[in-house]
Amino acid sequence: MIRTLLLLLMIPIFSCRPTKPADTLLINARIYTVNESFDQATAIAIKDGRILGLGTDTEILQDFQAEKTIDVEGKTLVPGWIDAHCHFLGLGLQQQKVDVSGTRSFEEVIQKIVAFQKEQNTAYITGRGWDQNDWEVKDYPTKDRLDKLFPDTPVAIHRIDGHALLANQAAIEAAGVTVETPFSGGEILQKNGELTGIFIDQPMTMIESTIPAPSTEETIQALKAAEKICFEHGLTTVSDAGLPRETIELIDRLQQEGQLAIRIYAMVSASDEHIDYYTNRGIIKTDRLNVRSFKIYADGALGSRGAAMKEAYHDQQNHFGAMVTPMSVLEGYAKKIAASDYQLNTHAIGDAANHRVLRTYQQVLGQNPDRRWRIEHAQVVAPEDMALFKTALPSVQPTHATSDMYWATDRVGNQRIKGAYAYKELLKQHGKIALGTDFPIEKVSPFLTFYAAVSRKDLQQYPPEGFQMEQALSREETLKGMTLWAAYANFEEKEKGSIEVGKFADFIILSKDIMEVDTSEIPTIKVVQTYLNGERVY
Asked: Is 391 within 8 Å of 361 (Cβ atoms)?
């Protein structure tokens, strides 16, 4: 306080020199700029939503004049977090559904559904979050209990990863599914010739197509609810991994009307109709919305054994997972997108899926390989395929490693696990790595992302030595992955991702120095303030 007071008293001395007008000055901060040299500063000047000046307190107070000067009181200031892969709308819609995440038994799932329905009394019960891997009995649940409790009300509850769901008989009948119904790209589990209620990957669409779509008003409420949560966690840009045209146009309208402020990198859900429409229209770019990429699902998830593997699952012989999108379709989409200015971002988890997608990228891009085409998740990669990431940008979610480590080795075995969640190796190959959360599959908190990336431990400090610590990222690499490299993955590194003159004044003030505190303290860090365009939004 004494230091700040002395600096403010010196302003009249500086005033004899020419000063530039600014809107806001922030002084007495510990600023990690995340610029090319990873420089630090203590003060910034802001005007018209952008960074006008950067330097020491003395320099900024000498060179700029503003009506508002904020003393950051020595706290840490970093660029606003950019979540490179999440489901922003999904997070908002989840607030309107039953949340069964963190449950430790199927009985607890049932209790939460019953309590939700008692309060909400919905015509169709939907929700998300169960994970049989967290239960003492790790088998998939069946619909029997749901059939007895809700004989006339359809129920469809997605697994935590969104790649499996449990439906009761009412939901199955509403979808017209029987044991004779043909399917591809996944599984419909049966037991003793009867449906169990478990649908994995592509067959889920049979059930999902009968779930009432949210109204426009419900979607608007969901977007606003998600924005509030994101600002509280210091997120200023989110990359939503798969949105339909109508939602993107709604987001654009809300942003233009001032009802939605957060910046969104919208990956368009790939379909023939969407690809034709957007490639013909061209890139859509405003200060808050960027539409220049498509999202495709190559395979399913590891937790539900839907990830496409080169060899059989270690814990389920003769099972290889499945490609959700047939290769002929994926290759056709890739060729169309390669002929445009759009980016392709493909969900690939199993080593077979990663191999096929990486080879497809290589084939269709030919002499122009560095288009920043992304592999989303890149979860299990064979050693011989790692080098293909030189021209494919890895976009990963560090908390997946610490969530999955309890059962991942059982799925793939001791040898293949060495190429799983291999973030350091992926970084070594490409030179950059984009980090996200995949929320609401994982928690929103970027601090958990940071912690998982550098410690490779869960919140119980397990395992003590860290999970495959040779794949841990340094703090500097992690901060870049959550800011500048995430911006690069979105073609936005010239306007955001670091604290530099000319860039958007998107930044956050933290309760502790994330680059210096003991690793165990990282999850306890809080966002003190969030600034977007130089305006405080939290």
From this structure: yes
Query: Residue 241: pLDDT above 50?
Result: yes
CA 7, 497, 255, 262: dihedral to nearest 10 degrees?
-80
Range of the structural domain that residue 371 is part of: 216-536
230 shares a domain with 183 = no
- Please report, rounded to a whole number, the percentage of residues in the chain having pLDDT higher than 90: 92
* CA terminus-to-terminus distance, the chain: 24
Asked if 110 and 149 count as a contact pair (C-beta separation under 8 A), the reply is yes
In this predicted model, what pLDDT tens digit does every residue of 287-318 receive, in sequence order?
Answer: 999 999 999 999 999 988 999 999 999 999 99
Q: Measured between alpha carbons, how far is residue 252 from residues 289, 373, 386 in Å?
A: 7, 24, 38
On the CB side of 529, CA atoms within 13 Å amount to 18
Whole-model pTM? 0.90
Tokens linked to 485: 């490299």
Tell me, what's the pLDDT at 325?
A: 95
CB atoms within 10 A of CB 13: 10
Number of domains in the chain: 3
CA atoms of 340 and 274, how far apart (whole Å): 13
pLDDT at 368: 78
Model confidence pLDDT, tens digit, residues 487-524? 999 999 999 999 999 999 999 999 999 999 999 999 99
198 vs 381: CA distance, rounded Å = 28
Confidence check: pLDDT of 13 > 50: no
Which residue's entry shows tokens 């379909």?
271
Beta pairing partners, 69: 25
Query: What confidence tier does 5 reach under pLDDT thresholds 50, 70, 90?
Result: low
Q: Which of 18, 22, 28, 16 is nearest to 55 (CA)?
A: 28
The answer, yes or no, to whether residue 59 has pLDDT greater than 90, is yes
Total length of the chain: 538
- Please give the Cα distance from 104 to 101 (Å, whole number): 9
**Domain match, 351 and 403 both:** yes
Cα 407 to Cα 448: distance, rounded to the nearest angstrom: 20
523: tokens are 């999850």
Query: What does the alpha-carbon distance between residue 198 and residue 420 come to, in Å, rounded to a whole number?
Result: 27
Task: Retrieve residue 522's tokens.
Answer: 């990282």
| Same domain as 407, residue 283 | yes
Bridge partners of 6, per DSSP, are none
Q: Would you say residue 434 lies in a domain?
A: yes
Q: What is the mean pLDDT of residues 451-468?
A: 97
Helix axes 272-281, 245-256, angle to 10 degrees: 40
**CATH number for position 423:** 3.20.20.140
Question: Mind giving me the DSSP string for 206-240?
Answer: HHHTTSPPPPHHHHHHHHHHHHHHHHHTTEEEEEE
